[in-house]
Amino acid sequence: MRTRTYPLALMLLFCTSTLLADNILMDDSSDDIYWQPEEPFKEGETTLPEKIDLDDLQAFQVSANDPRLQYFIERGSLQTGDDKVTRFVVVIRSRTGATNTSYEAFRCGERLFKVYGYGSDDKLFAATKPEWQTIPKDESTDFRAALYDDLICNLLTGQSNSPDAIFRAMRDNRTLAID
Fold this sequence. Notes:
This protein has three helices and ten strands. The chain has 179 residues and is an alpha+beta fold. The protein has a domain at 60-171. The strands form two sheets. Strands 1, 2, 3, 4, 5, 6, 7 and 8 form an eight-stranded antiparallel sheet that branches. Strand 1 and strand 2 form a beta hairpin. Mean pLDDT is 82; it is low at 23-31.
């Protein structure tokens, strides 16, 4: 008779302890004495480049490697601001010579991009109501995914790679991604 009370007592103890440990597996950082709320993202002031230097372009590859289009970044435009946003000029040239340009930005670690302006040749015009958008994950057809995943952003740290490392990888036709 005594051996039956031990399992019953253990089961009763187990049931009451799990009820008392309400949400023990929930991670609520507000209970942590060191927890500080994250500051909301505040974007720095952005102005369009006055002119694009078409003599200062660095080619990069998109996985699809469509021979009809060539992709470039203007070397002097690639900068990461105090707001941790990396901004740059993209130049896309067709094999017939038509050129489209845009001034864009990435928020590394959040997989977001914004287009501040569009143009052709060496002049940009401000985009109306630019907004942050998600970068698609298909590198085979999207130059932004190729830039984000393979060159500009360090996917482990959520920070931008250095411009020197980015341009060296572009020149050597390799990626900075860690597989």
